[in-house]
Specification:
mainly alpha; 2 domains; 22 helices; membrane; acyltransferase activity; acyltransferase
């Protein structure tokens, strides 16, 4: 597929050997961090700056979007325009369904287009941002729909996210096209975005001005330390990406010289190659988090020690993913904004088949490569199997600390292997190659997952905790 973004820095791309789309991505994010710091310093959240903050965020977002996506930006405009018309004129009790069907349909059409014209390759194009825009538009529509429902019919999370009035055009444009998330996201919810623009998300203090009258000012917590930490982490992840991820692709596990090795060597080799593939996502998400934080977006209150938290729009908890002892735990810390979107759009609203519905929606949202569906089907089985293990087996290992210690080690080894194993078909994308990989491992995790689902049914027997409780706990 031909890259549609700017070719202004093609000479730099040629000289350093970095693909132009990746170079433009890096340049745009560095610019967004610098501009975000200026935005935060010069357009502080206050009533007289609200419109300016919407407008500047939107205009700079359009410029960055055109720099990276070129004329493909019209897809974002068309999708956003139709959904805004639906918000304005569609009967409110159907607006969430209309927006969902149109947004997902448009996104699916782009995914199918890529199957024909860019199969098996990845060049930075508008489809990734369309995935984020689809999340924004659908979550906004569902929140607007919840605003007309009876308050007592909403769960605690829906009560905090419900929108009573349809957003004005400039609010809508600022939300969908803001410069912080126009390149790689992640999803920021509408109410969180509005609170960021107005300053309702940070501490307010009453002071007396020169005239003796009290006026409200908004004290912005310092972002320096957290920004430096995330930029240093980004640099470390970039080094790992170039030194490990690019050197050990998933496909290398199918090389004859690797398949001839013993099972322990293959296990370690696959752990390195598969785990390093997650680094490219960690890199993009941590850098995106730094972009958000530089502008002041992402502040999430204070911890018990009075330290500012900057994780409102963080999209991954790296250590928790790598140290998880179950598939569900790994999912809970991976692509967290998408997990929350799936929960709010599907899980909390489906009367039955909640887990299956989440996996189906997630699969369609990601695209239509056959390997994606192999991954999501297996993940569904592993999640169900994990429920059975936690409820029927795990309690026997909690009585003795030493036994629990070895149990935790064993479950971590199995969980990280299962995560890497199930993600293989997602990375390989093609059915035939994925089958070759699973044949090389004798479909071992598939077999174990199916057996566990059969002998350890893990259907929920307890009432699910409200989402807001889970978020606060995390």
């Amino acid at each position: 597929m031909t890259y549609h973004g700017s070719r202004l820095f093609s000479f730099v791309s040629d000289s350093i050997g970095l693909p132009l789309d990746q170079l433009n991505f890096l340049i745009s994010q560095i610019f967004a961090i610098i501009f975000g710091l200026l935005f935060r310093a010069n357009l502080k959240p206050c009533p007289q700056n609200t419109l300016k903050r919407h407008l500047v965020g939107f205009l700079v977002g359009i410029l960055l979007g055109h720099f990276c996506y070129g004329d493909q930006m019209w897809h974002l405009f068309l999708q956003g325009f139709v959904c805004y018309i639906a918000l304005q004129f569609c009967p409110r009790k159907y607006v969430h369904l209309v927006t969902f069907v149109f947004s997902m349909g448009y996104l699916s059409a782009l995914h199918i287009y890529r199957l024909f014209y860019d199969y098996g390759n990845y060049t930075l194009d508008i489809s990734g941002q369309m995935m984020v825009a689809t999340q924004k538009l659908t979550s906004l529509a569902f929140a607007y729909y919840d605003g007309m429902r009876k308050f007592e019919d909403l769960n605690e999370d829906q009560k905090t996210q419900a929108i009573n009035d349809c957003p004005h055009m400039i609010e809508f444009l600022g939300y969908v096209f803001n410069f912080q998330g126009i390149i790689v996201g992640p999803l920021c919810y509408y109410q969180d975005y509005i609170d960021f623009i107005t300053g309702n998300n940070i501490l307010k203090k009453q002071i007396k001005g020169a005239d003796g009258q009290e006026s409200s000012i908004i004290v912005q917590p310092s972002v320096t330390v957290v920004l430096v930490k995330k930029l240093l982490l980004t640099a470390l992840l970039a080094a790992i990406f170039f030194k490990v991820t690019l050197v050990y692709p998933i496909s290398s596990n199918l090389l004859p010289e690797i398949l001839e090795k013993g099972i322990l060597y293959r296990f370690v080799y696959y752990y390195i190659s598969a785990s390093s593939q997650r680094v490219k996502y960690y890199l993009a998400w941590v850098l995106a988090d730094a972009v958000n934080n530089a502008s002041g977006l992402g502040f999430n209150g204070y911890d018990e020690n009075g330290n500012a938290k900057w994780d409102l729009v963080s999209n991954v908890r790296i250590l928790q993913v790598e140290m998880s002892q179950s598939m569900k735990s790994s999912f809970d810390h991976w692509n967290t904004q998408t997990q929350l979107w799936l929960r709010r759009i599907a899980y909390d609203r489906l009367p039955t088949g909640k887990t299956l519905g989440v996996f189906v929606l997630s699969a369609f949202w990601h695209g239509f490569y056959p390997g994606y569906y192999l991954t999501f089907v297996l993940c569904a089985f592993l999640v169900y199997a994990g429920r059975g293990i936690r409820r029927k087996i795990r309690p026997f290992f909690l009585k003795n600390k030493l036994i629990k210690f070895f149990y935790d080690i064993f479950t971590w080894i199995f969980a990280i292997f299962a995560v890497n194993y199930s993600a293989a078909s997602f990375d390989l994308m093609e059915m035939e190659i994925a089958f070759k990989f699973y044949n090389s491992w004798y479909w071992c995790v598939h077999i174990v997952a199916i057996i566990l689902v059969v002998i350890l049914p893990g259907g929920s027997t307890k009432k699910k905790k409200p989402l807001t409780e889970e978020i606060k706990k995390e």
